[in-house]
Amino acid sequence: MKSARIIITGVLALFLGAFAPSYAQQDQHEQQAKPAKQEQQAKPEKQQQQHGQQQQAQHQQQQAKSDNQQHQQPQAKSQQDQHQQQQAKGQQDQQQKQQQQAKAANQHQQQQAKGQQDQQQKQQQQAKAANQHQQQQAKGQQEQQQKQQHAQQQQQQNQNRQQQHQQQANRSSQQHPHPAEQQAAWQGHRAQNWQSEHRDWQQRGGYHGYRIPDDRYRGHFGRDHWFRIYSYPVVVVGGFPRFQYDGFWFSIIDPWPESWSDDWYDNDDVYIDYSDGGYYLYNRRYPGDRIAVEVYLN
Protein backbone atom coordinates (compact mmCIF):
# COMPACT_ATOMS: atom_id res chain seq x y z
CA MET A 1 0.00 0.00 0.00
CA LYS A 2 2.68 2.27 1.00
CA SER A 3 4.71 1.31 -2.01
CA ALA A 4 1.77 1.82 -4.22
CA ARG A 5 1.31 5.24 -2.66
CA ILE A 6 4.96 5.94 -3.34
CA ILE A 7 4.63 4.80 -6.88
CA ILE A 8 1.54 6.92 -7.45
CA THR A 9 3.33 9.85 -5.92
CA GLY A 10 6.34 9.31 -8.13
CA VAL A 11 4.21 8.94 -11.20
CA LEU A 12 2.32 12.03 -10.30
CA ALA A 13 5.53 13.85 -9.74
CA LEU A 14 6.83 12.72 -13.10
CA PHE A 15 3.63 13.74 -14.66
CA LEU A 16 3.62 17.06 -13.05
CA GLY A 17 7.23 17.55 -13.89
CA ALA A 18 6.58 16.77 -17.51
CA PHE A 19 3.43 18.82 -17.63
CA ALA A 20 4.78 21.80 -15.77
CA PRO A 21 7.25 22.94 -18.41
CA SER A 22 4.69 22.50 -21.09
CA TYR A 23 2.17 24.45 -19.07
CA ALA A 24 4.75 27.02 -18.35
CA GLN A 25 5.55 27.35 -22.00
CA GLN A 26 1.93 27.45 -22.79
CA ASP A 27 1.36 30.01 -20.13
CA GLN A 28 4.32 31.94 -21.34
CA HIS A 29 3.08 31.64 -24.82
CA GLU A 30 -0.30 32.78 -23.68
CA GLN A 31 1.31 35.57 -21.75
CA GLN A 32 3.14 36.60 -24.89
CA ALA A 33 0.11 36.16 -27.05
CA LYS A 34 -2.12 38.06 -24.64
CA PRO A 35 -0.45 41.47 -25.20
CA ALA A 36 -0.57 40.88 -28.90
CA LYS A 37 -4.16 39.90 -28.59
CA GLN A 38 -4.77 42.85 -26.36
CA GLU A 39 -2.93 44.97 -28.80
CA GLN A 40 -5.01 43.54 -31.61
CA GLN A 41 -8.09 44.10 -29.56
CA ALA A 42 -6.92 47.61 -28.66
CA LYS A 43 -5.97 48.41 -32.21
CA PRO A 44 -9.54 48.57 -33.56
CA GLU A 45 -10.52 50.61 -30.56
CA LYS A 46 -7.60 52.88 -31.19
CA GLN A 47 -8.46 52.99 -34.82
CA GLN A 48 -12.01 53.72 -33.91
CA GLN A 49 -10.78 56.34 -31.50
CA GLN A 50 -8.49 57.78 -34.12
CA HIS A 51 -11.29 57.56 -36.65
CA GLY A 52 -13.59 59.30 -34.20
CA GLN A 53 -10.96 61.91 -33.59
CA GLN A 54 -10.52 62.30 -37.31
CA GLN A 55 -14.26 62.57 -37.76
CA GLN A 56 -14.38 65.00 -34.88
CA ALA A 57 -11.51 66.94 -36.40
CA GLN A 58 -13.26 66.86 -39.76
CA HIS A 59 -16.48 67.88 -38.08
CA GLN A 60 -14.64 70.69 -36.33
CA GLN A 61 -13.04 71.65 -39.61
CA GLN A 62 -16.40 71.54 -41.33
CA GLN A 63 -17.93 73.43 -38.45
CA ALA A 64 -15.13 75.96 -38.59
CA LYS A 65 -15.47 76.11 -42.33
CA SER A 66 -19.20 76.48 -41.99
CA ASP A 67 -18.72 79.14 -39.32
CA ASN A 68 -16.13 80.77 -41.48
CA GLN A 69 -18.48 80.58 -44.44
CA GLN A 70 -21.33 81.85 -42.33
CA HIS A 71 -19.07 84.57 -41.02
CA GLN A 72 -17.79 85.30 -44.48
CA GLN A 73 -21.30 85.29 -45.96
CA PRO A 74 -22.55 88.17 -43.75
CA GLN A 75 -19.32 89.98 -44.43
CA ALA A 76 -19.70 89.36 -48.16
CA LYS A 77 -23.39 90.26 -47.90
CA SER A 78 -22.48 93.36 -45.93
CA GLN A 79 -19.86 94.27 -48.50
CA GLN A 80 -22.36 93.57 -51.28
CA ASP A 81 -24.99 95.69 -49.49
CA GLN A 82 -22.46 98.45 -49.02
CA HIS A 83 -21.52 98.22 -52.68
CA GLN A 84 -25.17 98.29 -53.68
CA GLN A 85 -25.77 101.21 -51.32
CA GLN A 86 -22.77 103.00 -52.76
CA GLN A 87 -24.05 102.31 -56.27
CA ALA A 88 -27.54 103.49 -55.27
CA LYS A 89 -26.07 106.55 -53.61
CA GLY A 90 -23.94 107.21 -56.69
CA GLN A 91 -27.01 106.88 -58.89
CA GLN A 92 -28.97 109.14 -56.52
CA ASP A 93 -26.15 111.69 -56.55
CA GLN A 94 -26.04 111.45 -60.34
CA GLN A 95 -29.80 111.94 -60.51
CA GLN A 96 -29.59 114.89 -58.12
CA LYS A 97 -26.76 116.33 -60.16
CA GLN A 98 -28.80 115.87 -63.34
CA GLN A 99 -31.84 117.42 -61.65
CA GLN A 100 -29.75 120.36 -60.48
CA GLN A 101 -28.31 120.75 -63.97
CA ALA A 102 -31.82 120.55 -65.46
CA LYS A 103 -33.06 123.04 -62.86
CA ALA A 104 -30.17 125.38 -63.60
CA ALA A 105 -30.82 125.03 -67.33
CA ASN A 106 -34.52 125.71 -66.75
CA GLN A 107 -33.72 128.75 -64.62
CA HIS A 108 -31.35 129.95 -67.31
CA GLN A 109 -34.05 129.49 -69.94
CA GLN A 110 -36.56 131.30 -67.74
CA GLN A 111 -34.11 134.13 -67.20
CA GLN A 112 -33.48 134.31 -70.93
CA ALA A 113 -37.23 134.27 -71.61
CA LYS A 114 -37.76 136.94 -68.96
CA GLY A 115 -34.94 139.00 -70.43
CA GLN A 116 -36.48 138.67 -73.87
CA GLN A 117 -39.89 139.58 -72.45
CA ASP A 118 -38.42 142.59 -70.65
CA GLN A 119 -36.66 143.59 -73.86
CA GLN A 120 -39.92 143.25 -75.79
CA GLN A 121 -41.79 145.29 -73.18
CA LYS A 122 -39.06 147.89 -73.27
CA GLN A 123 -39.26 148.01 -77.05
CA GLN A 124 -43.04 148.23 -76.86
CA GLN A 125 -42.81 151.05 -74.33
CA GLN A 126 -40.27 152.83 -76.50
CA ALA A 127 -42.49 152.34 -79.55
CA LYS A 128 -45.49 153.52 -77.54
CA ALA A 129 -43.58 156.55 -76.30
CA ALA A 130 -42.40 157.28 -79.84
CA ASN A 131 -45.96 156.87 -81.11
CA GLN A 132 -47.26 159.17 -78.38
CA HIS A 133 -44.55 161.66 -79.22
CA GLN A 134 -45.49 161.48 -82.88
CA GLN A 135 -49.15 161.85 -81.99
CA GLN A 136 -48.34 164.82 -79.79
CA GLN A 137 -46.30 166.34 -82.58
CA ALA A 138 -49.09 165.66 -85.06
CA LYS A 139 -51.60 167.07 -82.59
CA GLY A 140 -49.41 170.11 -82.03
CA GLN A 141 -49.06 170.61 -85.76
CA GLN A 142 -52.80 170.15 -86.17
CA GLU A 143 -53.50 172.64 -83.39
CA GLN A 144 -50.99 175.02 -84.95
CA GLN A 145 -52.70 174.64 -88.30
CA GLN A 146 -56.08 175.17 -86.67
CA LYS A 147 -54.76 178.26 -84.93
CA GLN A 148 -53.38 179.53 -88.21
CA GLN A 149 -56.65 178.77 -89.94
CA HIS A 150 -58.58 180.43 -87.14
CA ALA A 151 -56.28 183.45 -87.31
CA GLN A 152 -56.78 183.56 -91.06
CA GLN A 153 -60.52 183.28 -90.60
CA GLN A 154 -60.45 186.02 -87.99
CA GLN A 155 -58.37 188.16 -90.29
CA GLN A 156 -60.75 187.46 -93.13
CA GLN A 157 -63.71 188.24 -90.89
CA ASN A 158 -62.09 191.46 -89.79
CA GLN A 159 -61.45 192.37 -93.39
CA ASN A 160 -65.05 191.54 -94.25
CA ARG A 161 -66.25 193.62 -91.35
CA GLN A 162 -64.09 196.50 -92.37
CA GLN A 163 -65.41 196.23 -95.88
CA GLN A 164 -68.95 196.06 -94.55
CA HIS A 165 -68.31 198.97 -92.28
CA GLN A 166 -66.90 200.91 -95.17
CA GLN A 167 -69.86 200.00 -97.35
CA GLN A 168 -72.24 200.85 -94.58
CA ALA A 169 -70.45 204.14 -93.99
CA ASN A 170 -70.75 204.90 -97.67
CA ARG A 171 -74.44 204.10 -97.68
CA SER A 172 -75.26 205.45 -94.23
CA SER A 173 -76.24 208.84 -95.52
CA GLN A 174 -78.73 207.21 -97.87
CA GLN A 175 -80.11 204.44 -95.60
CA HIS A 176 -80.17 206.09 -92.22
CA PRO A 177 -83.37 207.97 -91.60
CA HIS A 178 -83.39 211.30 -89.95
CA PRO A 179 -81.99 211.02 -86.42
CA ALA A 180 -85.20 212.35 -84.97
CA GLU A 181 -87.26 209.76 -86.89
CA GLN A 182 -84.92 206.94 -85.89
CA GLN A 183 -84.97 207.98 -82.26
CA ALA A 184 -88.75 208.22 -82.36
CA ALA A 185 -88.94 204.64 -83.74
CA TRP A 186 -86.67 203.31 -81.02
CA GLN A 187 -88.38 205.21 -78.24
CA GLY A 188 -91.80 204.27 -79.55
CA HIS A 189 -91.10 200.62 -78.85
CA ARG A 190 -89.94 201.00 -75.28
CA ALA A 191 -92.10 198.91 -72.94
CA GLN A 192 -93.97 200.25 -69.97
CA ASN A 193 -94.05 196.78 -68.33
CA TRP A 194 -91.80 194.51 -70.37
CA GLN A 195 -92.63 191.34 -68.40
CA SER A 196 -96.26 191.56 -69.46
CA GLU A 197 -95.81 193.18 -72.88
CA HIS A 198 -93.14 191.05 -74.59
CA ARG A 199 -93.80 187.64 -76.17
CA ASP A 200 -91.34 184.93 -77.17
CA TRP A 201 -91.53 182.90 -80.38
CA GLN A 202 -93.40 180.04 -78.73
CA GLN A 203 -96.08 182.47 -77.63
CA ARG A 204 -96.12 183.85 -81.17
CA GLY A 205 -96.76 180.39 -82.59
CA GLY A 206 -93.18 179.63 -83.66
CA TYR A 207 -90.64 181.21 -85.94
CA HIS A 208 -91.46 181.04 -89.67
CA GLY A 209 -89.03 183.60 -91.11
CA TYR A 210 -85.71 183.24 -92.93
CA ARG A 211 -83.09 180.96 -91.36
CA ILE A 212 -79.44 181.85 -91.41
CA PRO A 213 -77.21 179.07 -92.89
CA ASP A 214 -75.28 177.14 -90.23
CA ASP A 215 -71.81 178.03 -91.52
CA ARG A 216 -72.68 181.74 -91.56
CA TYR A 217 -74.32 181.47 -88.17
CA ARG A 218 -71.32 179.75 -86.53
CA GLY A 219 -68.91 182.29 -87.98
CA HIS A 220 -70.78 185.55 -87.21
CA PHE A 221 -73.53 184.98 -84.65
CA GLY A 222 -73.90 183.92 -81.04
CA ARG A 223 -72.65 185.43 -77.80
CA ASP A 224 -69.04 185.50 -79.01
CA HIS A 225 -69.91 187.75 -81.96
CA TRP A 226 -71.21 191.00 -80.54
CA PHE A 227 -71.55 194.38 -82.21
CA ARG A 228 -73.17 197.81 -81.84
CA ILE A 229 -76.19 198.72 -83.91
CA TYR A 230 -75.18 202.33 -84.48
CA SER A 231 -72.36 201.31 -86.85
CA TYR A 232 -74.73 199.44 -89.20
CA PRO A 233 -77.48 200.66 -91.51
CA VAL A 234 -80.84 201.25 -89.79
CA VAL A 235 -84.24 201.81 -91.41
CA VAL A 236 -87.76 202.10 -90.10
CA VAL A 237 -90.30 199.70 -91.65
CA GLY A 238 -93.89 199.89 -90.50
CA GLY A 239 -92.85 201.94 -87.51
CA PHE A 240 -90.37 199.24 -86.40
CA PRO A 241 -86.61 199.83 -86.53
CA ARG A 242 -84.73 197.41 -88.80
CA PHE A 243 -80.91 197.14 -88.90
CA GLN A 244 -78.48 195.30 -91.16
CA TYR A 245 -75.69 192.98 -89.91
CA ASP A 246 -73.46 190.58 -91.88
CA GLY A 247 -75.63 190.83 -94.96
CA PHE A 248 -78.92 190.11 -93.16
CA TRP A 249 -81.68 192.48 -91.98
CA PHE A 250 -83.10 192.11 -88.46
CA SER A 251 -86.48 193.62 -87.60
CA ILE A 252 -87.26 194.20 -83.91
CA ILE A 253 -90.85 193.05 -83.35
CA ASP A 254 -90.76 192.96 -79.55
CA PRO A 255 -90.67 195.99 -77.21
CA TRP A 256 -87.41 196.53 -75.43
CA PRO A 257 -87.31 196.55 -71.58
CA GLU A 258 -87.86 199.82 -69.82
CA SER A 259 -84.88 199.07 -67.59
CA TRP A 260 -82.48 199.47 -70.52
CA SER A 261 -80.73 202.78 -71.04
CA ASP A 262 -82.25 205.31 -73.43
CA ASP A 263 -79.40 205.02 -75.95
CA TRP A 264 -78.67 201.30 -75.63
CA TYR A 265 -78.93 200.86 -79.46
CA ASP A 266 -76.00 203.30 -79.84
CA ASN A 267 -73.72 202.38 -76.91
CA ASP A 268 -74.46 198.78 -75.76
CA ASP A 269 -72.90 195.63 -77.17
CA VAL A 270 -75.54 193.29 -78.57
CA TYR A 271 -75.55 189.93 -80.41
CA ILE A 272 -78.01 187.73 -82.28
CA ASP A 273 -78.61 184.17 -80.95
CA TYR A 274 -80.94 181.34 -81.93
CA SER A 275 -82.74 179.94 -78.89
CA ASP A 276 -86.03 178.16 -78.13
CA GLY A 277 -87.05 177.90 -81.78
CA GLY A 278 -86.35 181.49 -82.88
CA TYR A 279 -83.93 184.42 -83.15
CA TYR A 280 -83.45 186.92 -80.31
CA LEU A 281 -81.44 190.09 -79.70
CA TYR A 282 -79.40 190.01 -76.46
CA ASN A 283 -77.87 193.01 -74.63
CA ARG A 284 -74.58 192.14 -72.90
CA ARG A 285 -75.27 194.78 -70.25
CA TYR A 286 -78.62 193.09 -69.42
CA PRO A 287 -78.04 189.36 -70.02
CA GLY A 288 -81.34 188.30 -68.47
CA ASP A 289 -83.51 189.93 -71.14
CA ARG A 290 -83.98 189.16 -74.83
CA ILE A 291 -86.01 190.73 -77.66
CA ALA A 292 -87.62 188.70 -80.44
CA VAL A 293 -86.34 189.61 -83.92
CA GLU A 294 -87.12 188.38 -87.42
CA VAL A 295 -84.49 187.82 -90.12
CA TYR A 296 -84.73 189.09 -93.68
CA LEU A 297 -82.31 188.42 -96.51
CA ASN A 298 -82.90 191.74 -98.32
Describe the model.
The structure is a single chain. With 298 residues, this protein is of the alpha+beta class. It has a domain of 120 residues. The protein has 5 helices and 6 strands. The protein has a 6-stranded antiparallel β-sheet. Strand 2 and strand 3 form a beta hairpin. The chain is rod-shaped and about 235 Å long. About 6% of the residues have low confidence.
What is the fold's blueprint, element by element?
Elements: H1 2-175, H2 179-188, H3 194-197, H4 214-220, E1 234-237, E2 240-245, E3 248-252, H5 264-267, E4 270-275, E5 278-283, E6 286-296
Antiparallel strand pairs: 1-2, 2-3, 3-6, 4-5, 5-6
Tell me the series of helices and strands, N- to C-terminal: HHHHEEEHEEE
Q: Helix proportion of residues, in percent?
A: 55-70%
Strand content of the residues, in percent? 5-15%
Estimate the global geometry from the Cα principal axes. Answer: rod-shaped
**What is the residue-mean pLDDT, rounded to a whole number?**
77
* Helical segment count: 5
Low-confidence stretches: 18-25, 168-177
C-alpha Rg, in Å?
Answer: 77 Å
Order of strands, main sheet, comes to: 1-2-3-6-5-4
Derived from helix and strand composition plus strand pairing, the structural class reads alpha+beta
Termini separation comes to 231 Å
